[in-house]
Design brief:
Length: about 300
Amino acid sequence: MATLADVAALAGYNKSTVSRALTRPEMVAPDTLARIHDAAKQLGYVLNRTASHLARGRTGLVAFVVPTLENAFFAPIIGGAQARAAASDLHLTVAVATLETPAQVAALTRLAGQVDGLILAAPRGEDAHVAAIGATKPIVLVDREIPGLPSVVADTATAIGQVVSGLAARGHHRIAYLGGPSGSWQDPGRAAAARAAALDAGVTLSVHGPFPATFAAGVSAAEEVLASGATAVVPYATALALGLMLALRGRGLHVPDDIVVSAETQVTDALGAPGIPAIDVDGESLGRAAMDLLTSPSAGTLRLPVRVSWS
């Protein structure tokens, strides 16, 4: 395998000039740059990007931190961020942390020292802990806002309000909202939007939870939902919806004939039944926007609209 020294020998320059030509071409004369590139091409030399980043005091690594790998919501966001990172000659690594304990904060602080920046999906954890990470390296928050830190937020609260309004317009007088995990930043806003929409429509809304955003939690919520008398349910997450749907079917009920449970489009399409509202967050766009903010920093919050459709 060809080395930097081999390219230098063939091109007739020292290694520092060759290195500068390959990493900072704007600092090298055009004729010199052409000779070095011809030599590198002839030898099949491939630049070690990691070494290049380190030489400039950078690692070329960005960490995407999520609170769990069980929630499929984060998968397309990571995918969008990874695609954007590759286009910026960066590598994306994924770490799991909720920032709810001093040990996790310490671990993430250590990780921050090994990367150029972090995209942080931290729906739980104290603002001070998140801000402490942001004081060490550039960070972008996903689906959370903290003054002074850049963030990208999917406007799911507005979408949930639209779903409650739509359900009321379709004749549902008792609607249930299944809340998300305890301490979730997004959950209070979603619950508030659901309450406001129900009040405007003159229908009854019962709020249940907190629940982890898991299939098992959806199953466990069935008894409470049935006791509420709700004919329609708006859950915090699709995993909750799936668990609830299964539990309702186990009790002889059908979705959406007996009770409507909102989910996301791939679920409602699979059920093939009309009248089920779907809330779809464009996760890839969320991830791309977060990476763009990290590589081209700007203050404030970028709020992305969330689509609501009815199967």
